[in-house]
Amino acid sequence: MGKRSKSTAPGHAVNGRRGILAGAATGVIAAGVLFAVAELLSAFFGSVSSPLTSVGSTFIDFTPAWMKNFAIATFGTNDKTVLLLSMAVAAVVLSAVAGVVARKRFAAGASLVGAFAVVMAACIVTRSGATVLDLVPLLAGTVAGLWALRYLTRAGRTAATAPFDAGNSAPLPSRRAFLVRSALVAGAAVVVGVGANVLSTARNTARQVRDALRLPAPKVKARDLPSGVQAAVNGVTPFVTPNADFYRIDTALVVPELDPSQWQLRVHGMVDNEFTLSFDELLAADLVETYVTLTCVSNVVGGNLAGNAKWLGYPLREVLARAKPKAGADMVLSTSSDGFSASTPLPVLQDNRDALLAVGMNGEPLPLEHGFPVRMVVPGLYGFVSATKWVVDLEVTTFAEKAGYWTSRGWSSHGPIKTASRVEVPRALGRVPAGKVGIGGSAWAQQRGISKVEIQLDNGAWQPATLAAEASVDTWRQWSYLWEGATAGSHNVRVRAYDTDGTLQIEKQAPPEPDGSSGWHSITFTVV
Ligand SMILES: Nc1nc2c(c(=O)[nH]1)N[C@H]1C(S)=C(S)[C@@H](COP(=O)(O)O)O[C@H]1N2
Ligand SMILES: [Mo]
């Protein structure tokens, strides 16, 4: 440092602290150009052609189970935001390195960018449904990024080799030129990036078609909810979860945008009669409406990865009856447009439960995030083995032959829902006034139903809670308990449920992996 004024060879100045900063900025701006151009073009080629989307999705697919569990446990349904932020940090660091290297040896820096592009290309072409054409946006982006890298690296070198003006802190013309050029290129990247965003929103025909779609009336309407399904305690979860509040769990970094007029369901595999179903055919069939509580296997004890909705759809039993499964088949592998898959036991889809190819949720077409235009809903099974959103393919096969997405990542192949119960009021660590304290929550044992819920106050005797009305064995059931003489201080409440077979919910604490958490939920609150 401080030797800059003596340096004559450009190499020295190029490596100074300022040089590194300028190189890093050059690299980051060039990456911005690369991604902005690629995103703009990907609005025309489809979302797999977006390097950001495909790299992120590939990362999600290769995330080890423990990391996925950690992400969901720590960030819940914000896990994708955290992934995007981490990717942004990684992109900034890698592009800064490329920029610094390019400043010293342009060919080396450019090769680094090329190497990153090759990795991104590999992520793109290996996505489900991708073709070589999907490489066009990345290719164009890389050319633009390399141009920006060269343009700014040259400007930066000229600035660095200009004589250092020790007495004057104002930038010399060549330094100012570098700053101006950097700002111009960065500004252009931002404008193109924003344009890409606007364009892809405008071109989202799926959303427009969805908003204009009117679903047919069901052939079999859902039974009216009995009065009293909602427990008489303020603050208990709404019995029917509004679509906007319904938990969302999936591997899709970008929500698939399927146009119903292009949608087809291919039914094939070990069947006598393969066929494809169009969306119009599906809507013309005899649709059924039913309330089902969906539950995620990643839900921890007391967690909120569960929701209850009124679904409208076509019974999968009918789809399979038409396909005529061959003897020996024991599983249906359902696959989404973005390559997720779930293994559902064949008998479950053939018995008389309301397993649906769903098109409606709470009286509306499915929201895009919940699988528009068609998803599966299967009462009694966790979502990861049954609830495929954006479903496009049903293959009748065997568990011996095929495995679903999460099964090949350390989770179980079958996923019956375990009996669960939770305290929702009072809130954990909440404060409530002394006197009468309302306690309440939800319990579920889909397909079996809840027959009894008990609570335990401050490790005392287990006491029966009051059960709210039951809508069906496939929906959650609320419970409440009025604690009359609550005294000031810290208290603890535990809950446990029995299904209609009389089987008590498992007491042993277990984490979600591999087949769902277990344990009795317990919270602490303060009476003031
Ligand atoms: N295409 C697709 N479908 C999917 C998933 C997914 O990652 N991709 N996740 C499943 C899981 S693990 C669950 S719990 C449910 C969640 O459905 P929801 O997001 O509508 O609540 O969707 C299932 N269907
Ligand atoms: Mo899940």
UniProtKB/TrEMBL annotation:
The chain crosses the membrane at residues 20-45, 82-102, 109-129, 135-152, 178-199. It comes from the Bacteria. GO terms for molecular function: heme binding; molybdopterin cofactor binding; sulfite oxidase activity. Keywords: Membrane, Transmembrane, Transmembrane helix. InterPro entries: Ig_E-set (IPR014756), OxRdtase_Mopterin-bd_dom (IPR000572), OxRdtase_Mopterin-bd_sf (IPR036374). Residues 254-406 form the Oxidoreductase molybdopterin-binding domain. One of its GO terms (biological process) is sulfur compound metabolic process. PANTHER family: SULFITE OXIDASE, MITOCHONDRIAL, SULFITE REDUCTASE. This is Oxidoreductase.
